[in-house]
Amino acid sequence: MTAGRGISHSERSPAALRPDGPVLSGIQTWIALPSAKEEIDPAFEHVPKSALPVVEGSGASARVVMGTLWGATSPVTCHSETIYADIHLEPGGAMPIDPEADERALYVAEGQASLDGLELQPQVLYLLRPGVRGTLRSGSGAHVMLCGGAPLDGPRHVWWNFVSSRRDRINQAKDDWRSGRFPLPPDDKAEFIPLPVAAPLTVSYP
Predict the structure, then answer these.
(1) If you write DSSP's letter for every residue of the chain in order, what string do you get?
(2) 49-149 falls under which CATH superfamily?
(3) Band of residue 25 on the pLDDT scale cut at 50, 70, 90
(4) pTM reported for the whole predicted model
Protein backbone atom coordinates (compact mmCIF):
# COMPACT_ATOMS: atom_id res chain seq x y z
CA MET A 1 0.00 0.00 0.00
CA THR A 2 1.31 3.45 -0.92
CA ALA A 3 -0.23 6.23 1.17
CA GLY A 4 0.99 9.13 -0.96
CA ARG A 5 -1.17 12.20 -0.35
CA GLY A 6 -3.48 10.18 1.89
CA ILE A 7 -5.24 6.82 2.10
CA SER A 8 -7.45 4.97 4.56
CA HIS A 9 -7.58 1.22 4.92
CA SER A 10 -9.10 -1.54 7.00
CA GLU A 11 -7.37 -4.53 8.58
CA ARG A 12 -9.89 -7.07 9.85
CA SER A 13 -10.29 -10.82 10.12
CA PRO A 14 -13.69 -12.08 8.91
CA ALA A 15 -16.10 -12.28 11.85
CA ALA A 16 -16.73 -15.99 11.25
CA LEU A 17 -13.04 -16.79 11.82
CA ARG A 18 -12.49 -14.81 15.02
CA PRO A 19 -13.90 -17.21 17.68
CA ASP A 20 -11.63 -20.14 16.72
CA GLY A 21 -8.59 -18.42 15.23
CA PRO A 22 -6.37 -18.61 13.32
CA VAL A 23 -3.48 -17.20 15.30
CA LEU A 24 -1.49 -14.72 13.22
CA SER A 25 2.08 -13.51 13.59
CA GLY A 26 3.22 -10.68 11.38
CA ILE A 27 5.51 -7.71 10.90
CA GLN A 28 4.14 -4.42 9.58
CA THR A 29 6.70 -2.21 7.88
CA TRP A 30 6.40 1.51 7.16
CA ILE A 31 8.76 3.02 4.58
CA ALA A 32 8.86 6.80 4.21
CA LEU A 33 8.47 8.00 0.65
CA PRO A 34 11.17 10.25 -0.81
CA SER A 35 10.20 13.89 -0.28
CA ALA A 36 9.67 14.37 -4.02
CA LYS A 37 7.03 11.59 -4.02
CA GLU A 38 5.18 12.33 -0.78
CA GLU A 39 2.13 13.68 -2.60
CA ILE A 40 1.77 11.00 -5.28
CA ASP A 41 -1.61 9.33 -5.74
CA PRO A 42 -2.41 6.67 -3.13
CA ALA A 43 -2.27 3.12 -4.45
CA PHE A 44 -2.56 -0.53 -3.48
CA GLU A 45 -1.09 -3.59 -5.15
CA HIS A 46 -1.34 -7.24 -4.20
CA VAL A 47 1.65 -9.41 -5.05
CA PRO A 48 1.01 -13.09 -4.33
CA LYS A 49 3.58 -15.12 -2.43
CA SER A 50 4.12 -17.26 -5.51
CA ALA A 51 5.39 -14.21 -7.45
CA LEU A 52 8.17 -13.44 -4.95
CA PRO A 53 11.51 -15.04 -5.86
CA VAL A 54 13.10 -17.53 -3.48
CA VAL A 55 16.88 -17.84 -3.15
CA GLU A 56 18.29 -21.08 -1.78
CA GLY A 57 21.41 -21.12 0.39
CA SER A 58 23.27 -23.62 2.54
CA GLY A 59 20.43 -25.06 4.60
CA ALA A 60 18.55 -21.78 4.12
CA SER A 61 16.02 -20.12 1.86
CA ALA A 62 15.16 -16.46 1.48
CA ARG A 63 12.06 -14.99 -0.12
CA VAL A 64 12.85 -11.58 -1.62
CA VAL A 65 9.89 -9.37 -0.67
CA MET A 66 11.26 -6.06 -1.97
CA GLY A 67 14.28 -4.97 -3.99
CA THR A 68 17.15 -7.07 -5.32
CA LEU A 69 19.07 -9.54 -3.15
CA TRP A 70 21.37 -12.46 -4.03
CA GLY A 71 20.74 -11.80 -7.72
CA ALA A 72 16.92 -12.05 -7.47
CA THR A 73 14.52 -9.12 -7.87
CA SER A 74 11.03 -8.81 -6.37
CA PRO A 75 8.19 -7.42 -8.54
CA VAL A 76 6.91 -5.29 -5.62
CA THR A 77 6.98 -1.55 -6.40
CA CYS A 78 9.75 0.41 -4.66
CA HIS A 79 9.78 4.22 -4.66
CA SER A 80 13.31 4.33 -3.24
CA GLU A 81 16.15 1.83 -2.91
CA THR A 82 14.76 -0.89 -0.64
CA ILE A 83 15.70 -4.43 0.39
CA TYR A 84 13.45 -6.77 2.32
CA ALA A 85 13.80 -10.55 2.70
CA ASP A 86 12.13 -13.32 4.69
CA ILE A 87 14.88 -15.79 5.64
CA HIS A 88 14.31 -19.32 6.94
CA LEU A 89 17.32 -21.15 8.37
CA GLU A 90 17.29 -24.89 8.96
CA PRO A 91 19.35 -26.31 11.86
CA GLY A 92 22.96 -25.73 10.82
CA GLY A 93 21.88 -23.44 7.97
CA ALA A 94 23.73 -20.32 6.84
CA MET A 95 23.00 -17.31 4.59
CA PRO A 96 25.40 -14.55 3.47
CA ILE A 97 24.44 -10.98 4.38
CA ASP A 98 26.00 -8.72 1.77
CA PRO A 99 26.23 -4.90 1.81
CA GLU A 100 23.39 -4.51 -0.71
CA ALA A 101 22.14 -1.24 0.82
CA ASP A 102 23.48 1.70 2.80
CA GLU A 103 21.20 0.87 5.75
CA ARG A 104 20.44 -2.72 6.82
CA ALA A 105 18.91 -4.42 9.83
CA LEU A 106 18.23 -7.98 11.01
CA TYR A 107 15.28 -9.09 13.12
CA VAL A 108 14.97 -12.62 14.51
CA ALA A 109 11.25 -13.34 14.51
CA GLU A 110 11.59 -16.93 15.74
CA GLY A 111 14.32 -19.34 16.74
CA GLN A 112 18.05 -18.93 17.27
CA ALA A 113 20.46 -17.12 14.97
CA SER A 114 23.88 -15.47 15.04
CA LEU A 115 25.81 -13.16 12.74
CA ASP A 116 29.53 -13.91 12.53
CA GLY A 117 29.43 -15.40 16.03
CA LEU A 118 27.30 -12.63 17.59
CA GLU A 119 24.17 -14.16 19.08
CA LEU A 120 21.05 -12.28 17.97
CA GLN A 121 18.27 -12.01 20.52
CA PRO A 122 14.72 -12.63 19.25
CA GLN A 123 12.45 -9.60 18.70
CA VAL A 124 15.41 -7.17 18.71
CA LEU A 125 16.28 -5.05 15.66
CA TYR A 126 20.02 -5.15 14.93
CA LEU A 127 21.42 -2.34 12.76
CA LEU A 128 24.40 -3.33 10.61
CA ARG A 129 27.33 -1.08 9.81
CA PRO A 130 27.42 0.07 6.14
CA GLY A 131 29.66 -1.99 3.89
CA VAL A 132 30.13 -4.88 6.33
CA ARG A 133 29.61 -8.42 5.05
CA GLY A 134 28.58 -11.23 7.36
CA THR A 135 27.11 -14.71 7.54
CA LEU A 136 23.85 -15.45 9.26
CA ARG A 137 23.80 -18.88 10.94
CA SER A 138 21.50 -20.98 13.08
CA GLY A 139 22.20 -24.07 15.12
CA SER A 140 18.57 -25.02 15.72
CA GLY A 141 16.62 -23.16 13.03
CA ALA A 142 15.33 -19.61 12.74
CA HIS A 143 13.03 -17.21 10.94
CA VAL A 144 14.82 -13.90 10.30
CA MET A 145 13.86 -10.70 8.50
CA LEU A 146 16.46 -8.64 6.63
CA CYS A 147 15.44 -5.08 5.76
CA GLY A 148 17.04 -1.84 4.67
CA GLY A 149 17.56 0.62 1.89
CA ALA A 150 18.68 4.13 1.11
CA PRO A 151 18.88 6.70 3.94
CA LEU A 152 16.05 9.22 4.24
CA ASP A 153 16.56 12.36 2.18
CA GLY A 154 15.60 14.56 5.14
CA PRO A 155 13.78 14.53 8.50
CA ARG A 156 10.24 13.18 8.86
CA HIS A 157 7.47 14.21 11.22
CA VAL A 158 5.18 11.48 12.57
CA TRP A 159 1.85 12.08 14.35
CA TRP A 160 -0.51 9.15 14.87
CA ASN A 161 -0.83 7.60 11.37
CA PHE A 162 0.43 10.65 9.50
CA VAL A 163 3.99 10.96 8.16
CA SER A 164 5.44 13.92 6.27
CA SER A 165 8.57 15.98 5.85
CA ARG A 166 6.43 19.07 6.57
CA ARG A 167 4.78 19.75 9.90
CA ASP A 168 2.09 21.93 8.28
CA ARG A 169 1.15 18.97 6.07
CA ILE A 170 0.65 16.86 9.19
CA ASN A 171 -1.73 19.51 10.55
CA GLN A 172 -3.64 19.58 7.26
CA ALA A 173 -4.01 15.78 7.38
CA LYS A 174 -5.35 16.02 10.93
CA ASP A 175 -7.97 18.54 9.81
CA ASP A 176 -8.87 16.42 6.77
CA TRP A 177 -9.35 13.30 8.91
CA ARG A 178 -11.35 15.15 11.56
CA SER A 179 -13.60 16.66 8.88
CA GLY A 180 -14.20 13.41 7.01
CA ARG A 181 -12.31 14.41 3.86
CA PHE A 182 -10.44 11.09 3.76
CA PRO A 183 -12.44 8.57 1.69
CA LEU A 184 -13.07 5.45 3.78
CA PRO A 185 -12.72 1.89 2.40
CA PRO A 186 -15.83 1.32 0.25
CA ASP A 187 -16.54 -2.14 1.69
CA ASP A 188 -15.82 -1.27 5.34
CA LYS A 189 -16.89 2.26 6.26
CA ALA A 190 -19.49 1.68 8.98
CA GLU A 191 -16.99 2.57 11.72
CA PHE A 192 -14.75 5.61 12.03
CA ILE A 193 -11.72 5.96 14.30
CA PRO A 194 -11.69 9.53 15.63
CA LEU A 195 -8.55 11.61 15.73
CA PRO A 196 -6.81 11.24 19.13
CA VAL A 197 -7.59 14.08 21.49
CA ALA A 198 -4.25 13.85 23.28
CA ALA A 199 -0.91 13.54 21.54
CA PRO A 200 -0.49 9.88 20.47
CA LEU A 201 2.58 7.91 21.45
CA THR A 202 3.72 7.91 17.82
CA VAL A 203 4.63 11.62 17.93
CA SER A 204 8.16 12.15 16.63
CA TYR A 205 9.26 15.67 15.79
CA PRO A 206 12.96 15.77 14.85
Answers:
(1) -B-TT---------GGGTTT-----------PPPGGGTTSPPB-----GGGS-EEE-EEEEEEEEESEETTEE--S--SS-EEEEEEEEEEEEEEEE---SSEEEEEEEEE-EEETTEEEPTT-EEEEPTT--EEEE-SS-EEEEEEEESPPSS--EEETTEEES-HHHHHHHHHHHHTT-SPPPTTS-S---PPPSSPPTT-B--
(2) Jelly Rolls (2.60.120.10)
(3) confident
(4) 0.89
